[in-house]
């Protein structure tokens, strides 16, 4: 007998029929003798409907009242799911975030969980009940209803699993697991049996579509085994673990992430003096523009440097203006170049830590395909390269095969 | 400076525009320096929408989950109204029944209020805030959300007014007060400035369309001045008071109630032996049929009796069957007569207590119009007569004039 926390998102409970289907799924686990806590979001569309009502009344309502309003969405779902479970003979009770004792700080609309009181939950579970809990919401010290921000139901699931020391927190989504890369780009993409928390975080461009990053961090911090599964079909999904344990066949690379949402900017022949980097990036950060990759090369003469970085494509024009109008006049000299036809491709894998040669193999594979690398940055478990956008699919597919990620491929990654 | 509890029903908050109008009305009172607690129902249609969702899932859900579900309706309204107040510069905070500490028993879907904790409310009011409270709901000792049953928002308003010792509980409805009789039947019907709790209870057929009887009883018990007003136009409405105090011009009759929803049944020549009444009415009550008027006359020979009573028209056929199949065989003898073309007309007024002759005047007025009286029953502040249904309007109008109730009429009721 295991204790599972199962989280179903808005699409999974988006209609009466889907709520009934979730009840059937929960019943199957219950019938196997497991203890089940179910966490649900608002029915898809409901939160937007409520926000729409609010915006007709007040374009700047207090966050406290917004939380009071939108928290009703999950409350509707928990009661309907409990009714659906009762209908098929499963004893079930629903609880709001406040009732189950999910204590948060008072940062309305983006509250953080501080404590969960599990006494009542445990009593119900010991009585054989399925407990249905409203995701995304809690209560502060003064009894005000708070919400964790959009997508926060994942966090509720993980936090409950941590507090209850559950055997697994299962996040049901519209995909059947985490893949080595996006199957729409690489048809040989393979579902991973397991992936580490660090890898999920580094694969943000893949992972963020499936799970809230915050819930993954939370799971890592509290050692909660997290599993991503499909709401609509049966299957083992992907287990997200704190650390890859005793895995004899630990793969070198777990997945390939990519995005085409960045633009590259370069300042050529910038004087190589202390503090130049902050003089370049300071005005950009001041404009609330986020910088991703940063690379600085010393030029052959040793007196000037080429400084490159990437920003979101939507910030490309604004960044060019800041460089031209503010940065270049202040640091002196230099020529600006910009390119927004680029793609970032990243290899991610904890196996990289203990293996040399991943980068050189990556560069060799890309060179063999005639793909020029425009910029490189590395972390402990990730290597990212910038390439021309038109080569993105080719790069992902070549690397996917070369690093043995293809479905049914025999691994050959001895680098 | 007064403290008002103002209750707005589902129609009054049925749309974004109406919620904004309620906010404006509340602001006007606030601007006059009064402290305001607002109690609101769910937006009209919302409770039925939620019940509809539930019925698609489970035709017999537990009452606890129904309360969890439908209580979201008021929660949406309180947050939207608080936002609307904030938008027009009124500091406002919303509270669910649970948050404001409306403690009830655990009789889900028909809970009774046991206690209200007013500390937080008082603090907010002293801070100059308008407090918006969800009607119709509370919380039991274990923290489960309960509801007071349909229409229970009136009761919430009265209970809060009692707990806060408010100067007045104002119930905003779609009529502008309590009338001497239904204006659709008698064009001379007049709005009453005041009416006593007892009169409201006796005028159920008028009053129940405006106010929940239970909230009127509650107001009487706790001496809460209750005022019925229109949501949509300004005006003084009708004040419902515990006792008519020092009213020099206390009217003999306050109003005329009527209904055409009853049917009359008579057993003729029933043996006049002890216990015969319970033998007749027992089997009817056992079938959950409610009996209204009961009249028993001794017949001239002193050995038999004529026994008459009224039931709802919808129970007419079933009652006839019970009399024929069960009662007459068991009590022996007798002949049954039934009539469902009857109307009940009642004069109501606390002034009746200290005045003789109301009944004789009533009978005289009806006789002058050629209206035959089929049955009479009296209470301390009410006289009811059964007449042919076709005379109903004529009877109401004649009595309305004769007892000085007509708008702009000079009172002449010296009986």
From TrEMBL, chains A, B:
Annotated catalysed reactions: L-aspartate + ATP = 4-phospho-L-aspartate + ADP
Residue ranges of every copy of the ACT domain listed in the record: 265-350
Range of residues in the leader sequence: none
Classification lineage: Bacteria, Pseudomonadati, Pseudomonadota, Gammaproteobacteria, Oceanospirillales
Pathway: Amino-acid biosynthesis; L-threonine biosynthesis; L-threonine from L-aspartate: step 1/5; Amino-acid biosynthesis; L-methionine biosynthesis via de novo pathway; L-homoserine from L-aspartate: step 1/3; Amino-acid biosynthesis; L-lysine biosynthesis via DAP pathway; (S)-tetrahydrodipicolinate from L-aspartate: step 1/4
Enzyme Commission no: 2.7.2.4
Alphabetized InterPro entries for the sequence: AceGlu_kinase-like_sf (IPR036393), ACT-like_dom_sf (IPR045865), ACT_Aspartokinase (IPR054352), ACT_dom (IPR002912), AKii-LysC-BS (IPR041740), Asp/Glu/Uridylate_kinase (IPR001048), Asp_kin_monofn (IPR005260), Asp_kinase (IPR001341)
Pfam families: AA_kinase (PF00696), ACT (PF01842), ACT_9 (PF22468)
EC class name: transferase
Keywords assigned by UniProt, alphabetized: Amino-acid biosynthesis, ATP-binding, Kinase, Lysine biosynthesis, Nucleotide-binding, Transferase
Protein known as: Aspartokinase
Family label: Belongs to the aspartokinase family.
Gene Ontology MF, one: aspartate kinase activity
PROSITE patterns xref list: ACT, ASPARTOKINASE
């Amino acid at each position: 007998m295991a204790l599972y926390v199962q989280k179903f998102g808005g699409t999974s409970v988006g209609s009466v029929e889907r709520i009934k289907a979730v009840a059937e799924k929960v019943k199957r686990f219950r019938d196997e003798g497991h203890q089940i806590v179910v966490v649900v979001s608002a029915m898809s569309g409901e939160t937007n409907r409520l926000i729409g009502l609010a915006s007709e009344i007040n374009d700047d309502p207090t966050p406290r009242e917004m939380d009071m309003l939108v928290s009703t969405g999950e409350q509707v779902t928990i009661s309907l799911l409990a009714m659906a479970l009762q209908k098929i003979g499963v004893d079930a009770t629903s609880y709001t975030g406040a009732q189950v004792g999910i204590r948060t700080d008072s940062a309305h609309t983006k509250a953080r969980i501080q404590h969960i009181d599990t006494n009542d939950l445990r009593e119900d579970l010991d009585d054989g009940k399925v407990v249905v809990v409203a995701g995304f919401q809690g209560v502060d010290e003064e009894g005000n209803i708070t919400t964790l921000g959009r997508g926060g139901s994942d966090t509720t699931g993980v936090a409950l699993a941590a507090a209850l020391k559950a055997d697994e927190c299962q996040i049901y989504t519209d995909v059947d697991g985490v893949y080595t890369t996006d199957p729409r780009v690489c048809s040989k993409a393979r579902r991973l049996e397991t992936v580490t928390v660090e890898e999920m975080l580094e694969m943000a461009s893949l992972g963020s579509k499936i799970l809230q990053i915050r819930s993954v961090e939370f799971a890592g911090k509290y050692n909660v085994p997290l599993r991503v599964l499909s709401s609509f079909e049966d299957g083992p999904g992907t287990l997200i673990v704190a650390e890859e344990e005793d895995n004899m066949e630990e793969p070198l690379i777990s997945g390939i992430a990519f995005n085409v949402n960045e633009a590259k900017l370069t300042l050529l022949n910038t004087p190589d003096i202390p503090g130049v980097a902050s003089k370049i990036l300071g005005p950009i950060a001041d404009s609330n523009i986020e910088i991703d990759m940063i690379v600085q090369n010393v030029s052959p003469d040793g007196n000037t440097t080429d400084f490159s970085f990437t920003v979101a494509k939507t910030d490309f024009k604004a960044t060019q203006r800041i460089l031209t109008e503010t940065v270049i006049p202040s640091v002196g000299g230099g020529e600006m170049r910009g390119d927004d036809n680029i793609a970032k491709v990243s290899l991610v894998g904890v196996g990289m830590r203990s293996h040399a040669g991943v980068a050189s193999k990556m560069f060799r594979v890309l060179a063999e395909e005639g793909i020029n690398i425009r910029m490189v940055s590395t972390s402990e478990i990730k290597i990212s390269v910038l390439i021309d956008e038109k080569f993105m699919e080719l790069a992902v597919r070549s690397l996917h095969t070369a690093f043995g990620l293809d479905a049914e491929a025999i691994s050959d990654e001895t680098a």
